[in-house]
Structures are given as structure tokens and as C-alpha cells.
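ok so i was messing around last nite and threw this chain in just to see what happens. nothing serious, just curious
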Amino acid sequence: MTGRSPSRKFLMLGAVIAGSGVAAGAFGAHALKEILDAPMLQVFEIATRYLMYHAFGLCVVSWAIDRYPAQGLQKSGWLFLVGMLLFSGSLYGVSLAGIRWLGAVTPVGGLAFIIGWLLLGWGVWREKQGEA
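result:
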């Protein structure tokens, strides 16, 4: 990924992760329906839903970086990626491998998502005000 602008990196990652999210959703709906019990299937679906939300969030970050080049915008993209790894990754581990202690990691990923969204809004607002 060297030589690419941050906005292109985030757009590329967002697209690849969204594609992976579609594949995970199909896997959950077809293959896992017969394997996982209902509560664990729901955990898997939550992981996939938030993965998709934040894949699209990365695409928004890419657009915002090109339009409002504030430093906080790149940080929001990285926080979305960390959140996907910790939030969705931990829920996948709980649902697919039964590693229950990973559930303790999930809120840290959720916090990364929240901070990422706040930084995105703040970065756009500051840039619009001419402060960034």
C-alpha cells in the first residue's frame, strides 16, 4: 500500500472489508444456520453487521479526507479498523470458536468505533470552520 494516498487506502480497505462482510453474511445465513445455536448465530450476525457499517464508514472517511484534509480524519479511519478487529473479531471468536473471554474485548472495539465517529465529525467541523 505504499505510494497511495490515505484516502485511497481507506477506500480500498473499505471495499475489501465490505466484500468480506457480504461473504461472512452469506456464510452465516447458509452454512452456519445448521451449525450454530440461535444465540451464537445472532452474535455472528452482529459482528457482520458492525463490520459492514464500518466498512462503509471507511469509505466515508476516504471521501472526507479528500474533501476536508484534517489530521483527525485519518485517525478516525484507523480507529474504525481497530474497532473492526476488536469488536467484530472478538464476536467472531466467541461465536465460531467458543472463546468466551474474547467477549471482554468487544467493548474496547465499540469504544474505538465511537471515538472514530466523533473524530470524523469533529475533523469535518473543524476544517469547515478553518481551524484544522
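not much to say yet. The chain has a mean pLDDT of 93.
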